[in-house]
Design goal:
The protein is mainly alpha-helical and about 350 residues long. About 55% of the residues lie in helices and about 5% in strands. It has helices at about 1-10, 35-50, 60-75, 75-80, 90-100, 110-120, 130-140, 145-155, 165-180, 185-195, 200-210, 220-230, 235-245, 250-260, 270-285, 285-295, 300-315; strands at about 20-25, 30, 320, 325-330, 340. Strand 1 and strand 2 (about 30) form a beta hairpin. The relative contact order is 0.04.
């Protein structure tokens, strides 16, 4: 009995904790678990309580905050979940995944859409000055809310410069990079730049100042293929480290998909295939779905290139359009072809 009393005192000295024991008898007595096992069980219970399933729907404010955090931090779900009350990393991931698949168009913006958004946001210098729900209703295409706000911020905000960077901007940007570095400092750098946003600053560094660019050598291609054969084609950050490349993971991934992937069809395109891509995209407004419906092995980038090729011919009157669908292309001549409504 003295031993049993010592055990109870040991586990109750840290707080009102019930003893945990099994119902297995050993020599006529109950067999207790070790104290370390009790602590581990309590610790795991505490962790699970932190991420206890919340049976409530996501509010519009939470969803908007989630999208903004993903744009800022990328898919760092553990870090993102800390910004919410009892939302686990898996909750955040599943909500983001579901929200991104909601009804609405997610393809390139047309000139009509951009012009309409520009007119609706005329003289607006802050996103808080607009009723974005009303803006969404007035746009030609019902895009997700986060896309509309991002388009305004990335291309139409009158406080920012777009296009080519001036010499003064480049000089200030390089000075700020030297001062703050690139590790999670893009918000600070953008605030000091004043004429460029966080995304512009990051992309300026990432795709202009940072990596090796240009033609890939045969040796580089062989290294990439060997690494993909060993590690797969999902983690090009790992492949970059393995082959010790000075190119970015994004450059390596794009080059592999466009030029090296043996599963991609790179045969010459026929007119029928180009027209099918254009017509299906006109119906579904989703190139991923078009690729699935066609059952083809073309690269997504290649499909977009040929879609725009046909669109250019349509705009120039060098295609026969019947009831909204292209039925014939004139790739060589400049004579306008018939359009039937």
């Amino acid at each position: 009995m003295p031993t049993l009393l010592k055990f109870f005192r040991a586990i109750t000295s840290v707080g009102p904790v019930k003893p945990v024991f099994s119902n297995v008898k050993c020599c006529g007595a109950l067999q207790f678990r070790p104290l370390s096992t009790v602590d581990s069980a309590l610790k795991m219970k505490h962790i699970n309580m932190d991420y206890q399933r919340i049976r409530r729907s996501w509010s519009d404010e939470e969803t908007e905050k989630l999208v903004e955090l993903v744009q800022k931090h990328g898919p760092s779900w553990t870090a993102i979940s800390k910004h919410f009350d009892k939302r686990s990393p898996s909750h955040c991931f599943m909500r983001y995944k579901t929200y991104m698949k909601q009804d609405g168009y997610n393809g390139p913006w047309s000139a009509e859409e951009v012009d309409t958004l520009r007119a609706l946001c005329k003289n607006i210098t802050s996103a808080n000055q607009l009723d974005w729900q009303e803006v969404r209703k007035l746009l030609p295409v019902p895009r997700p809310m986060w896309q509309i706000k991002q388009k305004w911020q990335d291309t139409l905000n009158p406080q920012l410069n777009y296009g080519k960077w001036s010499e003064d901007e480049v000089a200030r940007f390089e000075k700020l990079l030297a001062m703050y570095g690139v590790e999670k400092k893009w918000d600070v750098i953008a605030a000091e730049m004043k004429t460029r946003n966080r995304r512009q600053c990051y992309e300026r560094w990432r795709f202009t100042m940072c990596p090796t660019k240009g033609h890939y050598s045969e040796e580089e291609n062989a290294q990439i293929m060997q690494a993909v054969a060993k590690y797969g084609d999902k983690d090009f950050a790992l492949i970059r480290r393995v082959i010790k490349s000075t190119r970015t993971p994004r450059h390596l991934s794009q080059h592999y998909r466009d030029a090296l992937d043996p599963n991609v069809d790179r045969s010459p395109w026929t007119d029928q295939e180009e027209m099918k891509v254009y017509n299906l995209f006109g119906k579904h407004r989703d190139m991923v779905k078009v690729r699935q419906l066609m059952g083809c092995r073309r690269a997504g980038r290649d499909m977009w290139n040929h879609y725009y090729k046909v669109k250019k011919l349509v705009d120039k009157g060098r295609a026969v359009v019947v009831h909204g669908e292209v039925t014939q292309l004139n790739n060589r001549g400049s004579t306008a072809l018939e359009t039937k409504n």
